[in-house]
Design brief:
The complex is a heterodimer of chains A (463) and B (167).
Chain A: H1 2-20, E1 28-32, H2 35-38, H3 42-50, E2 54-58, E3 68-69, E4 72-73, E5 77-80, H4 94-102, E6 106-110, H5 121-129, E7 132-133, E8 139-142, E9 158-161, E10 182-185, E11 190-192, E12 198-203, E13 209-212, E14 225-228, E15 232-239, E16 245-249, E17 262-263, E18 268-269, H6 272-283, E19 289-299, E20 311-313, E21 317-328, E22 331-334, E23 343-349, E24 351-361, E25 372-379, E26 385-393, E27 401-410, H7 427-449, H8 451-462
Parallel strand pairs in A: 1-2, 1-5, 5-6, 6-16, 20-27
Antiparallel strand pairs in A: 3-4, 7-11, 8-13, 9-10, 11-15, 12-15, 13-14, 15-16, 17-18, 19-21, 21-22, 21-25, 23-24, 23-26, 24-25, 26-27
Helix pairs in contact in A: 3-6, 4-5
Chain B: H1 2-9, H2 12-15, H3 35-41, H4 59-73, H5 76-102, H6 107-131, H7 144-166
The chains are: A alpha+beta (463), B mainly alpha (167).
InterPro entries (chain A): DDOST_48_kDa_subunit, OST48_MD, OST48_N
Signal peptide (chain A): 1-21
Family (chain A): Belongs to the DDOST 48 kDa subunit family.
Chain lengths: 463, 167
């Protein structure tokens, strides 16, 4: 009875979330913000609500705030706005953020743009735990060679190009209409560690650097420069192993209302609003989420009569197909891998015996019309045992795919070996055998035929 | 061919003895007698040989004498066996040389083909020993018919094995 009620409830909940058609994690969004700061981010919040997110606002010190109830996530997404406070409230320790991410929730963290503001200890701890390094209080990024505003003496407002990535990485952060738009940025910046889970999303221009504005008033030397150029990340994204996402924005003004304006220097609209949409969409899993729609493999032996069978034979052709689709805001669409990237199949027994690229196939798997079918045909190795078809596709900004299917690879049955006459190399020796046999038959015939002569000779000699 | 020559030389000492060739079995200990020794005694028994050999006879003359002796004293069936043995040696040598030149893949085929000639040679040689009238005393319990039946059975088994082994 309880089970039925629960399944009905689950169906109802999934129906509701489907009808809203937004984030795959869920729409419940927590804004940790004070009222005066919230006023600076009205456009960001209304854009989120327009995309179907339901927002709940709490101040950092709120005592009624709780992230977990009955060991379930209360919120799907969290946005931590900058605050003047040195620490967040007792209900928001750094461990609660990791627990939230472990349970699959996403977090967007906006660090203060002003060098005078504090970064709460809990956020600094969280950053260290995910291999992102924040400069101490008082640092700011400057670029003296590309001024956003000529009248600003400190040069702390930067003009930054929209992100670009190598051709093997999908770019989810340049989807706005104006691809050449500049971003307005001010803040301290981040340094990104070597963890493969962390990816810089937006990097500083070449001549920008982050330095200590309090210590170095006249010039900056290496004592008080945090990091510089392309090493300096302005926005960085973390995707945990369970594909939850944590994004750090080095300067909150990047997403604030005041940046969604015309840039004085170029007299063009800044790209900030579109970029804010891209960053929130990626963080809250509206983009870059992959789904495996189906896996099919079959062998040469039975063809497609036996799909996903348990047993294959060594040195036989096997075809493997996987159907992949990608979430894009409110629907799944066929996933197309970047040009220089490849979805790969591993055929593994302890170690991969093969690692081969899967090619997008024209024939879709029958029941999955709305996905790309990646497939390949290969010959099983000359080794029997329990093998695994594994698709291990882990790429920056894409949710992790690690699919495994174990099958048995058997050896030749006794009647499956090539017969001697099927191997042209053995023909001389086959001929040898039959020459001996025919010669032997001739010999036996002559022996029997020659008997009387011998008997006669013997008889004569005996006499 | 080498075997033929060896066989042919064996009766040679007996040829110069006063006894008949049929009893040459008893001369087995003397089989190692060297050719010069033979030729030195040949003058005393020249009446039994059509070719007269002296101490300084040419090798060709010796070989001719051996050949003539073989032709004269070897039974028809033994000659037939010798021809078949020569045939097997040739077929086996061809297969072996082919294996050396062209490679031994598939190896079981080579083993079967070459083994067929070797095995057949052994069986045929056994038949020759058992049916040679010169060896009659040693194989008094084995009649030539019995030896031939054994030979046929053994050969058929060998052929069956080889054809199976080559698959």
């Amino acid at each position: 009875m309880g089970l039925t009620l629960r399944s009905v409830l689950t169906a109802l909940v999934s129906l509701v979330s489907l009808s809203q058609g937004i984030s795959l994690t869920g729409p419940r969004t927590l804004l940790v913000v004070e009222d005066d700061v919230k006023a600076q981010f009205q456009t960001l919040i209304s854009d989120l609500e327009a995309r179907g997110f339901t927002t709940t606002t709490h101040t950092p010190k709120s005592t009624t705030l709780t992230l977990f109830q009955h060991e379930e996530r209360v919120y799907d997404n969290i946005i931590l706005f900058p605050t003047k406070l040195k620490g967040l409230g007792p209900n928001l320790p750094s461990s609660s953020f990791l627990k939230h991410a472990t349970a699959g929730g996403n977090i967007l963290i906006l660090l203060p743009s002003s060098a005078d503001d504090n970064i709460p200890t809990a956020i600094a701890e969280l950053a260290t735990q995910v291999d992102i390094f924040l400069p101490p209080k008082g640092f700011a990024v400057v670029n003296h060679f590309d001024l956003a505003d000529a009248i600003e003496p400190e040069h702390t407002t930067l003009l930054v190009d929209l992100p670009s990535f190598p051709s093997d990485t999908r770019n989810y952060f340049n989807t706005g209409e104006d691809k050449g738009a500049k971003l307005l940025y001010s803040g301290a910046g981040l340094a990104v560690g070597s963890s493969p889970l962390v990816q810089p999303i937006l990097k500083a221009p070449r001549f920008a650097y982050s330095y200590d504005t309090k210590e170095a008033t006249s010039f900056a030397d290496d004592e008080n420069v945090f990091t510089a150029g392309k090493q300096l990340a302005l926005v960085a994204g973390v995707q945990t192993r369970n594909s939850a996402r944590i994004t750090f924005v080095g300067g909150a003004d990047l997403l604030a209302d005041k940046s969604f304006t015309k840039i004085a220097k170029t007299n063009q609209m800044s790209g900030n609003r579109a970029f804010a949409k891209d960053v929130t969409a990626w963080t809250f899993k509206e983009t870059g989420v992959l789904r495996v729609d189906g896996i099919e493999h079959w062998g040469e032996e039975f063809g497609k009569e036996v799909v996903n069978g348990d047993v294959y034979r060594i040195k036989h052709d096997v075809t493997f197909s996987v159907a992949l689709s990608e979430y894009s805001y409110d629907h799944f669409e066929p996933f197309v891998a970047p040009a220089d990237d490849a979805v790969q199949l591993e055929f593994t027994m302890l170690d991969p015996y093969y690692r081969i690229p899967l090619t997008a196939s024209s024939s879709a798997l029958t029941q999955h019309k709305n996905s790309t079918t990646y497939s390949t045909t290969f010959k099983t190795p000359d080794q029997h045992g329990v093998f695994t078809f594994a698709v291990n596709y882990k790429r920056p900004f894409l949710s992790n795919i690690h699919e495994k299917r174990a099958v048995t690879v058997r050896h030749f049955a006794h009647n499956e070996w090539t017969r001697s006459w099927g191997i042209s190399g053995s023909w001389p020796w086959i001929a040898g055998i039959w020459v001996v046999v025919v010669g032997w038959i001739g010999f036996v015939g002559l022996w029997l035929w020659s008997k009387p002569v011998v008997a006669e000779g013997k008889g004569k000699k005996k006499q | 061919m080498a075997r033929k020559a060896a066989r042919a030389t064996t009766p040679e000492p007996s040829a110069v003895r006063p006894t008949t060739p049929n009893t040459s079995v008893e001369t087995a200990p003397k089989a190692t007698t060297t050719a010069p020794a033979t030729t030195t005694t040949s003058s005393s028994s020249s009446s039994t040989s059509t070719v007269k050999l002296s101490a300084n006879s040419s090798p060709f003359a010796v070989a001719g004498a051996i050949w003539e002796k073989y032709q004269k004293d070897t039974p028809q069936r033994t000659k037939l066996i010798d021809v078949f043995l020569g045939f097997l040696v040739i077929v086996g040598a061809i297969q072996f040389v082919y294996c050396v030149i062209a490679g031994n893949y598939p190896f079981n085929a080579f083993l079967a083909g070459f083994g067929a000639t070797v095995g057949q040679f052994v069986l045929t040689a056994s038949l020759r020993i058992q049916t040679n009238p010169a060896n009659k005393t040693e194989f008094s319990s084995v009649s030539p018919e019995r030896a031939f039946a054994d030979f046929v059975f053994g050969s058929l088994t060998l052929h069956f094995f080889c054809v199976n082994f080559i698959n």
